[in-house]
């Protein structure tokens, strides 16, 4: 059953695979951010005490004697901690910054590719007051945790002084860096969930989850496929991301901006019931509760499924003739909509400043450059990293470097991306959600029971 379709407009280089994965800036898809590692690694005692707001907001008195006055020509060196980078992006970024700031030298400290291990290492160093690192890359789910624990420097005074317009950035990426009404991290590059589909089977992708269910049932078996739909339903961080996408599509949220638990709503129940309906269907693998990103990718590129939810990195492998059986027959679109529209889970990275830094002003100059238009353009052109600044997707050099960036549907997906709960105890909340969601998807409890359990357990965790 071959029908005319909207085909994938472009193919990224295989090196894009790791860069555009939900988080991870190495050469491979880093499943720790979207996998069990993020939720279970390195819980810090964020609830032990709140940040000293006077110290943070009035940070002109903190390390002032060591801060750089960019007009006095003082030579200074800052340390920037970043994950492994198999592209030229980091070197090019640092070189361009140093050319414009000849009195500031940036030393790059390469962290492990395992984001969970990097998280734990930061926690160990920052909790001990270590000031070796000045600037560091942070997973989108870290800022609130690091802010509450007193590891990160509040950035609002710098943002205001340099007249940076946060409206230029995708809203979800800004929200990820905001906690307690203040900015602790600047958006650096982003990622969002996509719906992949077989262009040799379907005319156009489903617009709603109900349409996906209908099409999956009707078309299952076409062109040798075994399944209608694939997703990440294993008990790990990827399950939380999938749930957040369903919640967003049906107008539900887990925690509001004031840290109130809002998950117990009819919208959340409806969203979870839709997830359960899909997982319990005959058009998903019998072991769907064991599926993570690699399992999804392997099944899809081997021609086993019509639709699959995954991150943008998968499209490169899907179009790689050496490993894919569906080359030339892959398209992507927004995830299906619920009652409130389409919602994609936000991935990506932020940039933060160590609150213990002795070089705060120089650190900010690097952060400002790195996360501004010039820095993000370098990262996009040299490393294929998806910018968080909307205007860069209209830049011809950016589009030429990674043609996916010229695809309006991809950009729309990034614009619709929603963050996971922004809270200093996110690892605990993720664990709670993983357990209750898994119980519901396995049929052990109802959607209503799972939602009520999540509400009670998250409230208890926030009260500790």
UniProtKB/TrEMBL annotation:
Residues 33-73 are annotated as: Disordered. Residues 1-21 form the signal peptide. The keyword Glycoprotein does not apply. InterPro entries: SBP. The keyword Transport applies. GO terms for biological process: maltodextrin transmembrane transport; maltose transport. GO terms for cellular component: ATP-binding cassette (ABC) transporter complex, substrate-binding subunit-containing. SUPFAM superfamilies: Periplasmic binding protein-like II. Gene3D superfamilies: Periplasmic binding protein-like II (3.40.190.10). One of its GO terms (molecular function) is maltose binding. Residues 33-48, 56-70 have a biased composition (Low complexity). It holds the Pfam family SBP_bac_1. Keywords: Signal, Transport. Belongs to the bacterial solute-binding protein 1 family. This is Carbohydrate ABC transporter substrate-binding protein, CUT1 family (TC 3.A.1.1.-). The lineage of its organism: Bacteria, Bacillati, Bacillota, Bacilli, Bacillales.
